[in-house]
Structure formats: structure tokens, C-alpha cells
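Posting here for the record, re: nicotinamide-adenine-dinucleotide.
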Amino acid sequence: MKVLALSEQEVASLLTMEETWEAVELAFKEHALGYAQMPPKVYLRYVQYNGDLRTMPAYLERLGVSAVKVVNVHPDNTKKFGLPTVMATILLIEPKSGQVLSIMAGGTITAMRTGAAGAIAAKYLGKKNPIIASFIGAGVQARTQLLALLAVFPSLQEIRVWDISSAATEVFVEEIRKKNSKLKTIPAKTAEAAVKKADIVVTTTPSRSPLILNSWVSGGTHFNCIGADAPLKEELDPEILKRAKIVVDDWEQASHSGEINVPVSKGIISKRDIWATLGEIVAGMKTARFSPDDITVFDSTGLAIQDAVTAEFVYRKALEKKIGSFITL
Ligand SMILES: NC(=O)c1ccc[n+]([C@@H]2O[C@H](COP(=O)([O-])OP(=O)(O)OC[C@H]3O[C@@H](n4cnc5c(N)ncnc54)[C@H](O)[C@@H]3O)[C@@H](O)[C@H]2O)c1
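Prediction output follows.
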């Protein structure tokens, strides 16, 4: 079996945010319309190493796209081993024969498709012309969240960053200033200072206790909650969720491991409190924002369909540009 192998650098050279975002938006729609098979992620927990491993299969029937991703989350990796927190490998499968077409690094795809989902959510749920975006967490995911928001919202003027590590905050702020000299970029002293009066708040930490309190949040704010993607993780005060229109990427995954998982397990919110899935909004099956004062929350756990469509796009482009190397398995 000949398989196209693609390294992280090769994948990164083939992917733009605009293309990722188009592919991901279509995937959400196909999912909502019932044309995708996607069992919830399966987890292995490496408790003694503060890490976990997930497998994520998906098949988009009308698009003829199928893939399986294997991905870890080890928040101490950078400190301990100089490795990223999240590392991933994707197998792209040909549905008609079941053969593997490609094996590719999935770190860039994970970050890009997660950024794309955040921007899609903010576009449908948030204010039309947001000015202030705040980042709680300044790691890998924060960067692609920002990249995607800047692609969707030319109106953004101010970026605020807060991370538990002030060094991480400073590095991200400097990076943003270098690339976007027109933006006012502020290293916030506290999470509260970052969040107050922000139009969009993006959370990308592995926190297991709320970082953002209800009393800091004014009407009209949109939250992209990205960091909570495993049981017990949470970044928002549940009181914010009670005030908000909550949109999940997938109920099964979100209730088990997303931003809502802890409040759901404590009975603070339930399925009745979920307004829609992002796919239902994208497909026009549910309306998004009603009033400028609505608080909206997108609970992102990360869907296998996002990886599958992005990987398939990378594969087609790699064949076209003759990038990567064929290996025999
Ligand atoms: N929803 C999704 O689709 C999706 C996709 C990828 C990763 N994730 C999750 O996003 C989170 C971040 O991933 P990453 O790749 O950016 O990791 P990263 O290690 O690159 O960045 C995480 C940042 O959060 C900071 N941090 C850690 N604990 C904090 C706390 N309590 N308060 C404030 N800041 C804190 C760290 O200092 C670090 O800068 C992880 O929980 C990961 O599982 C979600």
C-alpha cells in the first residue's frame, strides 16, 4: 500500500486560514444535516503524566471524506520535554476501499481547524463589528484563534492578552505587535482587566477551575471556549453560562468534556439550556444572536469532521503541488 506521508512543515506550507475555514464551515453544515458519521472521541488517561490521548474518527458521506486522528494533550510537555502540549497524527482513508491514502502530522491542522471554528462561531454569534478581542491563555491555540478572528473581522482594533505565565503573555504580545502594528495590543495584568468590556473573549487554557467571573462580563460579549476539551476542565464561571445563549459543537462531546461538562455534571445546566449546535446555526436551522446585549458562548471540544475535511484538503493540494513523499506500508 502506497501512502503519502506529510510532515508538519509540509502540511503548514499547504494550509491557509481562509481555506481551512471554508472546509470547516462546510463540515459543520454536513454534520447538522445528518450526512456525517462521528462517534464521540475515545479517551485514554495517562493520569500519572498529567496527559491523555484521544482517537477521533469521522466520515462525511456526501463529501466522500474519511479520517482518523490520534491526538494527545499533555500540558506539562513544554516544560518537561520541550514538546508541544498537543501533538497529532491523521490517517486519511479512502471510503470506497478503506485504504489509507495519507499519513500526516496533525498539529497544524488541529490548531488551524480550531481557530477556524472559533472565527465561524464569532461570525454567526458575536457582534457584527467587534473592536476588542481578549485572549485568556497565550499558547498554540491562542495564535490560530487570533489569526482566524483577524481574517474575519477587519474591525478589530484592540487585542488583550492574559496568561498565568507572564512570560507567555509577553511573548504573544510581542509577536502580535510585530505582525500587526496597527492593532493596540495590551498585556493585561489580570484576567479581569483583559475581559472587561471585551466584544470577544477567547479562552485557551487547560484550567480545571473558572478563570472568568460572571461579575466581569457585560452584555453583548461572545465567548469562544476552546480550552476545556476533557472531563473536569472549565474556564468560565457557570453563572455566565446561565446568562448566555450556549452553542456547542456537539452535545455528546460537550456534555462529557467541553466547557459545560462540570456544570452539567453538577446539574447547574442541562441539555434544555443549550440553544443549538454550531452546525445548526451555519445550516440556517436555528437563529443566532437576537439582541445586541445577548451573551453568547461557543463551547468547542473539537470535532473529528473538522480534522477530516482539513486533512483531505491538504492531501489534494499536496498531490497537485507534488509535496510529501510516498512510503510503502
Ligand atoms: N477545542 C478544541 O478543539 C481544542 C483543540 C486543541 C487544543 N484544545 C485545548 O486547548 C488548551 C490549550 O492548548 P494549547 O495547544 O494552546 O496549549 P499550550 O500549552 O500551547 O497553551 C496553553 C497556555 O495556557 C496557559 N495556562 C495554563 N494554565 C492556565 C491557567 N490556569 N490560567 C491561565 N493560563 C493558563 C499556559 O501558560 C499556556 O500559555 C488545552 O486544554 C487543549 O486541550 C482544544
